[in-house]
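Notes, p. 3: input format for complexes.
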Amino acid sequence: MRDHEPLIWPFEDIPAWPQYTFELRWTMADGKGNSAQPKMTAFSLEEALQTLARVYEKRCDEGGTDYSAVVYCKGVLPFHMEWFCHSTRPAGRSDVEIMQHFERYVAWVLDNRLDTDHDGPISLMGAEERWRWRGEEEGSAPPCRCKGCVESDRVRINH
Ligand SMILES: [Zn+2]
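Output follows (159 residues plus zinc ion):
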């Protein structure tokens, strides 16, 4: 079982929120053990449980048995990890402020070596390379504030 020590963002001038994820373990039909610990995080326990349920059902379809799962708080962090994307609550911030905050978050992850190959607790998924940052479309300025973002009270930096 991996270390579930929560990561705590240390700078009070940038807002941060609790983030949730899970670890799922199961056994395949051939007896081999397997596990999944997504780098992506959810905004709520409910959202993390919904994702866990989807992954569990998929593994059941593939013949997995003997499951165990841990849903846990990954930490209190200013940006959520999504699939080649980071999101945050807008909290009244301008685009410029959000991008400055993202810059500091990426620097903090790298300075603390939280994204070290496959073993680090965080995967930046390419966000360490600034030229990848974009809004909704290829070539558009980040962050994305599309209808989907607004409706879910988040802004996204795609990369
Ligand atoms: Zn969007």
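The chain has three helices and seven strands.
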